[in-house]
Design goal:
Distance between the termini of chain A: 55 Å
Keywords (chain A): Amino-acid transport, Cell membrane, Membrane, Transmembrane, Transmembrane helix, Transport
Radius of gyration of chain B: 17 Å
Number of helices of chain B: 10
Largest sheet of chain B: 6 strands, mixed
CATH class of the largest domain in chain B: Alpha Beta
Oligomer: heterodimer
CATH topology of the largest domain in chain B: Rossmann fold
GO molecular function (chain A): transmembrane transporter activity
Largest interface: A-B, 23 and 34 residues
Structural class of chain B: alpha/beta
Number of domains of chain B: 2
Largest sheet of chain A: 2 strands, antiparallel
Transmembrane segments (chain A): 12-32, 60-83, 90-108, 153-171, 200-222, 228-247, 254-271, 283-302
Strand order of the largest sheet of chain B: 6-7-8-3-9-10
Strand content of chain A: under 5%
Number of helices of chain A: 12
Order of helices and strands of chain A: HHHHEEHHHHHHHH
Number of strands of chain B: 10
Strand order of the largest sheet of chain A: 1-2
Structural class of chain A: mainly alpha
Membrane topology (chain A): Multi-pass membrane protein
Subcellular location (chain A): Cell membrane
Chain lengths: 308, 237
């Protein structure tokens, strides 16, 4: 029981990172119908920025907010400079552009911060490990039914629920959210009711990248370092989470992310001998496949309904 | 008094020029009907006035030049378009569609809510379906919703792009009665384009005939109806 609980909470906390990235994917997909392949690398760039702010002595709380601001500017700028002009010509080209951006940002991280793990004493880092938003010393845990739950895991879960809840409120109860839903539903009609669709999409990309940045920073805090390949697998899981939850459902992204984290951890924990560490990925995808066979739009996705 | 005035209005899509320079007026309190066949440029005229496509020429609204302003400023100025084929937000609830229609307003959610209640009285079937997704409504209901949504911006001029398209004659009749009532009771000016003109002619103050991007005839409904060639070509009797 104690072991199960521990694996469950570990899975939830890992899943919360996938959920944050997946939320970003969903926000962009809802607004524009594009899968942003560069979502993980945008988050990684912001994560490097947070490391840099830390080197300059900025306290972690403030550094994270600044990192999210960097993410917002990066996302909004991408929409204005790359996505908008290209989607006018061909929607499919946007996907290719985000793949190009994926490679460019990864190269840029390497050019600015080098290919090794950071912080690194060889590179003269002042920080001993990547700053964590939440207490992550070996003694920072509490006991529930005999299971030792890390405070870090607990707070990560709280964080994703707060962000997910905040986005839910924004989408459903604010004017910006109404505009975002309207643009996603019918762009031409949005213009006709006076919504500046360009601004809405720019802000959507900005919010998506800022939320993703938060995911990157938290993940780097968990692994205690940042490196160029940090977000590769996270992005894959985030895309899987969004698919599982339904690509147009923020709530689905959260549930999908948490579910994938939990499945992975339970499978790795209980079926290690016959599934093996390397294959736990495959098990998560089998579950997704099964869900999509029954519900093609994902757990919480809406299938399109229209009468004419 | 002239509300909307266009002089030498041209517009098109990329290299394709659809409007070849049209002159058009809508006076305060009028219902102006524009007739034309498929491809004549009716929808392009609407989209050019709404500012969702690039356009040239002189357009003034209430005496102000609106040629250079974007679609959001045009809605704020008081022109709103009911697009062809309803153009509702299918994934949004009926009420959210109405709220989106009030997007440009700055007078608070209380006033918006009061307007929603007011238009639900005019369109009781929408009130019954207020929490339903717009995409699940019938064609007639969606057209009602498109008009109600447009009214939410408190317009002075309503542009209606073929509201009768795909609707049963009885529903079309009901729709036109509502438009007439809005014109009479709310003082709303209307520019309406139609392909099938019989019903529209009855309520028109004035009529324009559009043919391949040019206005080929204009006059009062009586004048246009009295012209044999025009009547045969556009009214079919």
């Amino acid at each position: 029981m104690a072991l199960f609980l521990q694996r469950l909470v570990d899975g939830l906390s890992e899943g919360s990172i996938y959920a944050l990235l997946a939320l970003g994917l969903v926000i962009i997909y809802r607004g524009t119908g594009h899968l942003n392949f560069a979502q993980g690398e945008m988050a990684l760039f912001s994560t490097y920025a947070v490391y840099q702010f830390g080197e300059w002595g900025v306290p972690i709380g403030l550094a994270v907010l600044m990192g999210m601001a960097v993410g917002f500017v990066l996302g909004a700028g991408t929409e204005v400079v790359l996505v908008r002009p290209i989607s006018r010509k061909s929607p499919f080209a946007v996907f290719i552009v985000t793949i190009g951006l994926f490679q460019f940002l990864n190269w840029l991280d390497g050019a600015l911060w080098g290919g090794q793990q950071l912080p690194s004493s060889a590179m003269g880092s002042k920080q001993g490990k990547f700053p964590s938003l939440f207490p992550n010393n070996p003694t920072d845990y509490f006991n529930v039914f005999g299971a030792a739950i890390k405070w870090q895991s607990f707070w990560m879960l709280v964080l994703v629920l707060v962000i997910g809840g905040g986005l839910y409120v924004m989408f459903n109860y604010t004017k910006l959210g109404l505009a975002m839903r309207a643009v996603a539903s019918n762009s031409e009609s949005s213009k006709l009711v006076g919504i500046r669709t360009g601004t809405v999409l720019m802000v959507s990309w900005g919010i998506a990248a800022a939320v993703g940045a938060l995911g990157g920073v938290v993940y780097a805090g968990l692994t205690t370092n940042v490196n160029q390949s940090l977000m590769f697998s996270v992005f894959i899981y985030a895309a899987a989470a969004a698919t599982l939850g339904g690509f147009d459902s923020p709530g689905g992204a959260v549930v999908g992310g948490l579910a994938i984290g939990v499945i992975q951890n339970l499978v790795a924990g209980y079926a290690d001998e016959w599934v093996g560490q390397q294959m736990k990925v495959g098990v998560a995808f089998l579950v997704i496949l099964a869900v999509l066979l029954l519900r093609p739009a994902g757990l919480f996705g809406t299938s399109k309904v229209e009468r004419v | 008094m002239t509300l909307l005035s266009a002089r030498g209005l041209t517009a098109g899509y990329g290299p394709l020029k659809v409007l070849e320079g049209i002159d058009l007026d809508v006076n305060e309190g009028e219902i102006v009907v524009m007739l034309g066949a498929n491809g004549a440029g009716k929808t392009t005229t609407m989209r050019a006035i709404s500012g969702v496509i690039a356009r040239h020429g002189e357009i003034t609204f209430g005496g102000h030049n609106i040629q250079k302003v974007g679609p959001d400023a045009i809605v704020r100025a008081g022109i709103v378009q009911v697009p062809q084929g309803r153009g509702t937000f299918p994934e949004l609830s009926v009420e959210d569609n109405m709220r989106a229609g009030a997007y440009v307003r700055r007078d608070g959610s209380g006033a918006v809510q009061a307007d929603i209640a007011k238009w639900f009285e005019l369109f009781p079937r929408l009130a019954e379906r207020r929490t339903q997704r717009a995409g699940s409504l019938s064609g007639g209901e969606q057209q009602m919703l498109a008009i109600a949504r447009a009214l939410m911006s408190r317009p002075r001029l309503l542009l209606c792009d073929e509201p009768s398209m795909g609707l049963a004659p009885l529903i079309t009749q009901e729709l036109f009665q509502i438009i007439e009532r809005l014109n009479r009771d709310e003082g709303l000016s209307v520019l309406l384009v139609e392909q099938n003109a019989n019903l529209a002619m009855h309520m028109a103050s004035r009529v324009y005939l559009l043919e391949t991007g040019r206005i080929v005839a204009s006059g009062t409904a009586a004048e246009i109806g009295a012209d044999d060639t025009i009547r045969k070509a556009y009214l079919g009797f």
